Amino acid sequence: MRKVYITLLSLLVVVVSCKIQESKTINNRSYVEYGYLINEDPILLDIDTNLPYDEIAYIIGIKAKDKGIVNVPIFVAQTILETGYYKSDLFKNGNNLVGMKHPKVRKTTSLGKYDKSGHAFYESIEKCIDDYKKWQNAREIKKELSHEEYCDLLIQKKYAEDKRYKTKLLKIIENNKDLIERIESI
User: Fold this and answer.
1) Do 134 and 101 contact (CB within 8 A), yes or no?
2) pTM for this one?
């Protein structure tokens, strides 16, 4: 029995070391072939940016629900709008989903300023979602509002400067009803 246990333990060590050897570095981040960022923390969400935008949005929406984001449909619409359907440099290289700025006062998961505009950059997409939740908590946004009310709140709280922000977000939701229903059904 002891011999079998030692053999199984040896096999596990070989498998784990093979997985570690498959890691590669991209943009100073270590990735394993199946797409998750590895560091000292638990495995963090990272997404293949070559996926179709609706699949990226679905993954982000599910993670946002898991994290307790208030009004996930608007959050998902924000990620689509702010990243230009997940094509922006800030998204691809800064893991910033929603144009978050590096805060001066509140607690944050941001690693600093990405650009001269003060946009935040994150270790992972998941850390950006965590920061958005911190932003919601700091503004005491704790209950579900209608999509329209939440958009008004974003403008009132000076999240967005674009006067057409509400219209744009609601249009994205309208154009992606199936996606939003798929996220909300989970």
Assistant:
1) no
2) 0.75
pLDDT, tens digit (0-9, with 9 covering 90-100), for 72-98: 999 999 999 999 999 999 999 999 999
Q: Please count the structural domains in the chain.
A: 2
The answer to whether residues 87 and 171 belong to one domain is: yes
Question: Rounded distance, CA 65 to CA 4, Å?
Answer: 43
Residue 40 lies in a domain: no
Identify the CA nearest to 96 among candidates 104, 107, 108.
Answer: 108
Whether residue 88 is found in the same domain as residue 17: no
Range of the domain at 71: 53-184
Cβ atoms of 56 and 86 within 8 Å: the answer is: yes
Give 37's strand partners: 31, 44
Domain of 67, CATH number, reads: 1.10.530.10
CB 60 within 8 A of CB 79: yes
Report the amino acid identity of residue 114: Y
Which spans in 120-186 are helix H? 125-138, 147-156, 165-175, 177-184
